[in-house]
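Field: sequence (string)
Field: structure_tokens (string)

Example rows 1 and 2, in order.
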Amino acid sequence: QVQVVESGGGLVQAGGSLILSCTVSGLKFADVNMAWFRQAPGKEREGVSCIRWTSNTYYADSVKGRFTISRDNAKNALYLQMDSLKPEDTAMYYCAAGPRNAYCKNFAYWGQGTQVTVSS
């Protein structure tokens, strides 16, 4: 059984930083692509960043230069360093795992989410 668990969300002032973490069990972590998604109230879920099993990384234009995705295969862990946070970054953030042969798509395993709120 695959389990995906996020942590690290919270309330932060604009311009501040947060680090989100995600741990995965039940699959071979080093062989999967991992990603962060977010969904704000009343909006569709959007992809924030993806890191493939090769460690290639991809970012949404809205977070480029501010967010950094990383993974630690020895710990089965995924991270998202979020700097220079803006109120528009407020959302529920989700961690997801997907097959390595899909180009940052078809994420089959999802966490329950962690809330990030950025105050102005």
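Row 2 begins here:
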Amino acid sequence: QVQLVESGGGLVQPGGSLRLSCAASGFTFSDVGMNWYRQPPGKERELVAFITSGGGITTYGGDLAGRFIISRDNAKNTLYLEMNSLKPEDTAVYYCNARYADSTGDVDAWGQGTQVTVSS
């Protein structure tokens, strides 16, 4: 079965950095484009970043491109999100997401999320 497990969240001071990881299993990771989403407290979930299956193309939501970097290691079935110059408004639960079609139909898989809190 498809499983996505995020890790790496925590409490960080403004201006600091964190690196999130998402370990994937149960599907052919290297065939699937992957997303990071986040849900700030009291707000809707929003797209943070997307990366193609081979990692050659990345896109970012809002104005995150200058501070966040999405990457992947297909040999390790792992997705990453490097977050730099963190701001209090980056506080959110961060989720990785895989969306694809296979023989069973459409798959829209989510991890359990990892909390990121930016505060002094």
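free_text_note (row 2): The two ends are 40 Å apart (CA to CA).
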